[in-house]
Amino acid sequence: MARWLRFFSERFPVPLLAVITGGFALSSLASTGLVFRGSTALLGWLQAFLMFGVLRLMDEVKDYKKDLIAHPERPLPRGLLTLEEARRGIGFGLLLMSALAALSLIVFTRESGLLYAATTLFLYGMYREFGIGNWLEPRPLLYAISHQGISVLLSASIASLAFVSHEAVSPRAWLQASLLLLGAFFTYEVARKLDPHAHPLLRTYRSVHGDLKTGFILMGTTLVSLLGSWILFADQVWLWIFWGIELSVLFSYGLLIHKNHKITEALASVSLLLHLWGPAIFYFVRP
Question: CATH classification of 14-285 is 1.10.600, yes or no?
Answer without folding.
Answer: yes
